């Protein structure tokens, strides 16, 4: 079964067979291939936690562009 990147990192963090330093190295190796995705995830997280509704407006505009509306 395929996992998304956040599930993979969560599983590594919960893995007690390795030291935290080894887990961090494993996460950093995975992150190198997913850097653009991490940037988008962090940007979305920050926008979701803004007190203003600008996040929703931007997401609606992006969805409309994708649908060609």
Word description of this protein:
- With 69 residues, the chain is mainly alpha-helical.
- The chain has two domains: 1-33, no CATH class; 35-69, no CATH class.
- It is 75% helix and 0% strand.
- It has four helices and no strands.
- The chain has helices at 5-14, 20-33, 35-48, 54-67.
- Helix 1 runs antiparallel to helix 2.
- The longest helix has 14 residues, at 20-33.
- The model has no long low-confidence stretch (mean pLDDT 76).
Helix content: over 70%
Please state the oligomeric state of the protein chains shown: single chain
Gross geometry: elongated
Beta-strand percent range: under 5%
Q: How would you characterize the largest beta sheet?
A: none
**Which stretches are low in confidence, meaning pLDDT under 50 for 5 or more residues running?**
none
Distance between the termini: 35 Å
**What number of structural domains do the residues give?**
2
Q: What structural category do the secondary elements indicate? A: mainly alpha
How many helices? The count is 4
**How many β-strand runs?**
0
Radius of gyration: 16 Å
Write the layout of secondary structure elements.
Elements: H1 5-14, H2 20-33, H3 35-48, H4 54-67
Helix pairs in contact: 1-2
């Amino acid at each position: 079964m395929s996992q998304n990147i956040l599930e993979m990192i969560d599983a590594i963090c919960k893995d007690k067979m390795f030291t935290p330093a080894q887990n961090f190295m494993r996460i950093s190796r995975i992150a190198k291939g997913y850097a653009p995705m991490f940037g988008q995830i962090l940007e979305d997280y920050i926008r979701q936690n803004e007190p203003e509704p600008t996040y929703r407006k931007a997401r609606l505009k992006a969805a409309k562009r994708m649908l060609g509306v």
